Amino acid sequence: MSFYEDKILPHIIDSACSMESVMQLRAKVVPLANGEVLEVGMGSGINLALYDASRVTKVWGLEPSLGMRDKAQKNLANSPVPVTWLSLRGEEIPLPDNSIDSVVLTFTLCSIPDWKLALQQMWRTLKPGGKLLFCEHGRAPEINIQKWQDRITPVWKKFAGGCHLNRPVKNYLEEGGFNVEEIHNLYVDKAPRIAGYVSYGVATKAGFAKTD
Length: 212
Fold this sequence. Notes:
It is a single chain. The protein is of the alpha/beta class and 212 residues long. The chain has a single domain (3-205), classed as Rossmann fold, CATH 3.40.50.150. It has helices at 3-17, 20-26, 66-71, 73-77, 115-125, 143-159, 169-175, and strands at 35-40, 56-62, 83-86, 100-106, 126-137, 178-187, 197-205. It has a 7-stranded mixed β-sheet with strand order 3-2-1-4-5-7-6. The protein is globular, with a radius of gyration of 16 Å. The termini are far apart. The model has no long low-confidence stretch (mean pLDDT 93).
């Protein structure tokens, strides 16, 4: 890992992902988590303060970046829920089948190299009737913005930890085996439109009934 990826990029990502407008969106999905939780791409632990300790028994924090795990120490110390790190990629989730009550996926899908394999791993570990709670930025609906996303992404991802601006969130979730039960789409305030189109909501395992 380069000095930039280990020391500089974590600070950039932490600042961008903890803006007030972004935190407001995170707060719409993270408190819905219950039971044993898998958070994919925990990063610096921004979501930890949003978990409801009366609903969550444990969080498995999947995060391959040592720099991000180091950055998370303060948030870990103040976490209302117990956390166990999994220092692996989204494509490598070392948890048993049907063992997780909630998967939390926030501003992570954009940067996973093999997104489909990672989603299949999330599907595998999620219990029947469990929920995938997502809040992700991705492909905008306007053609002119899509064109700029496609142009800029090859350069952008080199400096933004592999982040793709143009991934269609709902389509990817469905291709990964999930039913998108609830979705809301909007542009984040004060964010450039090429990077600020966000989708958040709830998905369940395709082929299983949703539970409350």
